[in-house]
Amino acid sequence: MIILARQQNEKTVMGILSLLPGLREIPHLKAEIAWYHNSDTRELYIWQSESQGQVQGVLGVEIYDDEITIIRHVALSPESRSVKNYFAMLSDYQSQHPDVFLMGTLDNQKLINKWRKSVSKTTA
């Protein structure tokens, strides 16, 4: 299940995002989170699988014209990292935003492509 991150989730969001390369330094991490909070077109989501009761992942998105969403950050806690969980997080977001085309950054476009290919196999 994916839900919009709130202020009360900030420490969890910071902890999971700090696992990403380039976001390990606290000032840079705080600046990145502020970047999401300072715009109506950027959002941070938290994700937890149906079987777990705790937050396992964070998804950072940037929305363009309500038609395209760029996945800026996709991160899972170390014990939750699996292709299945990455795909579940992306699928949960897509199911909440069915009319949006998901794109990735240079860092995560391969993951988005693999997810899209797996989704097209299950719907074909």
UniProtKB/TrEMBL annotation:
It comes from the Bacteria. This is Riboflavin biosynthesis protein RibT.
